[in-house]
Amino acid sequence: MSKQHVPIKKNDEIDVIFEDLTHDGKGVAKVDGYPLFVAGVLPGEKAKIKVTKLNKGYGFGSLVELYEKSEFRIEPDCPIFAECGGCQLQHISYEGQLQAKEKQVRDVLGRIGKLENVKVHPVLGMKNPWHYRNKAQVPIGEREGGLVGGFYKQRSHEIIDMEACLIQQEENDEVLQKVKAICGEFGIRAYNEKSHKGTLRHIMIRSGKVTGEIMVVLITRTPDIPNRRKLVERIVSEVPGIKSVVQNVNTKRTNVIFGEQTNVLWGEEFIYDYIGDVKFAISARSFYQVNPDQTKVLYDKALEYAGLSGEETVIDAYCGIGTISLFLAQRANKVYGVEIVPEAIEDAMRNAELNGITNVEFEVGEAEKVIPQWYEQGVQADVLVVDPPRKGCDETLLETIIEMKPKKLVYVSCNPATLARDLRILEDGGYETMQVQPVDMFPHTTHVECVAKLRLKPSP
Ligand code: SAH
Fold first, then answer.
1. Average pLDDT, whole number, for the chain?
2. Between 416-428 and 94-111, two packed helices, what is the crossing angle to 10 degrees?
3. Which residues are catalytic?
4. Hey, what domains does the chain have and what are their CATH numbers?
5. Fewest 10 Å CB contacts: which of 291, 338, 393, 425?
6. In the predicted model, what is the mean pLDDT of residues 399-414?
7. 339 marked among binding-site residues
8. Backbone angle region of 64, left / alpha / beta, with phi > 0 → left and psi within -120 to 50 → alpha
């Protein structure tokens, strides 16, 4: 296909067979080599589609008629699957989702990382891939005087009320319904984006999977909440397991959910939860993994790949609230963690103390700046773990790793594309990718997490 040649026109209706699924869950069909992306279709399916948009190298279409269904196609369990957009893959059986995610990892490692032969294991999925989220966070609006809360209708700011979310822990849904109803009874007005009036912007519920502790967070436009004392009393009396009611004040005209000021209205500032044996304090604003069961699976794999004997010095780059660091510290001589967000490091230090773990040191800063400093100060890491955000590792950090030459690397990644890019750089710098384990942290969504094990190639 020549670069300019686009073999179809807008509004054409054509028959195609889908070959692949994109990282965001769209089906891919090729017309004379020209790729078309269509939502709601699966690899192997034959369909009539309408061409909706054409770009230079690729286009989009919408489904008109499905002729042949994939063996993996199922009816989505959730009645609002199509409107909500929170899940993208409920029309694929869970087995099909896991296979698609494995293929995606394999393909991207080959295409971007030139790692066609690397060992990629089948995705570690959940036995029960429902009701896994420990955090619910919904915008609040008004309909005929009552409060509604749920999600924004796609491409709009209209709030659709949601009674239950199938990937949410069930108690979170129940608590959310109760809090919504109580706030409504007390005449609390929902925040109105257009007029910048009203009080309640969002409700957030966090729960400890192991401990059953519940935190309710009311995000309000004003510091004042009408009838606050009585309102809080009612919430406390109606929510079993409640340990904390918190207000966050966001006075700004913004899409950002949280504001600067957080006040405890009742109970504790923190709830607690465990991942394995490690206890964590979770505040309204702390980052904490939303699928605690699969987090354990992921970290166990990271620990296995680190292969610790108890003698090692380990660096945990991008350590967040220290989850991986504390996991590793139980099996290492010393762990150093670095993270850019100061509040996360405060949490990490608190969590270390909470567990009586003393062989960890945390520092605030950019991994790419702090780790070279440690290196200059003589810190010799045997194992280095990275768990960067979606954009992957900073290049300076990869260069430092290549210079420091830790024997083992464990790369935890939430984005296979940047993982592939970084593994290529590390391979060229003397490392060998031994194996990659994808883990399904977010069933029914397109996300896939991976852990990769690398070792320094023996010098020839
Ligand atoms: N390992 C943690 C968090 C991983 S998320 C866990 O499993 O819970 C990635 C983290 O990297 C975030 O906490 C983010 O704040 C942090 N981060 C982003 N850029 C960074 C940088 N340049 N240096 C250090 N940390 C960074």
1. 94
2. 40
3. 414
4. 3-70 (2.40.50.140), 102-126+291-456 (3.40.50.150), 135-275 (2.40.50.1070)
5. 425
6. 96
7. yes
8. alpha
Write down the residue that tokens 């590792």 correspond to: 393
Q: Is 380 annotated as a binding residue?
A: no
> Distance, CA 394 to ligand 1 centroid (Å)?
12
Strand order in the sheet with 261-267: 159-161, 146-152, 135-143, 200-207, 214-220, 242-249, 261-267
- The DSSP element (H or E) to which 395 belongs, if any, is helix 395-404
The answer, yes or no, to whether residue 285 has pLDDT greater than 60, is yes
Between 4-18, 298-312, 366-380, the lowest mean confidence (pLDDT) is in 4-18
Instruction: Please state the rounded mean pLDDT for residues 362-378.
Output: 96
Q: Which atom of ligand 1 is nearest to the CA of 388?
A: 9
- The answer, yes or no, to whether residue 459 has pLDDT greater than 70, is yes
Ligand 1 binding pocket includes 355 (Cβ within 6 Å): no
Question: What atom in ligand 1 is closest to the CA of residue 366?
Answer: 23
Cα 128-129-135 angle, rounded to 5 deg: 115
387 in contact with ligand 1, CB cutoff 6 A: yes
Q: What is the pTM of this model?
A: 0.92
pLDDT for 1 beyond 50: no
CA of 53 to the centre of ligand 1 (A): 37
Backbone angles phi, psi at 149, to 5 degrees: -150, 140
Query: Residue type at 272?
Result: Y
Q: Determine the residue of 340, 351, 413 to mutate for testing ligand 1's pocket, defined as the one with the most ligand atoms within 8 A of the Cβ atom.
A: 340
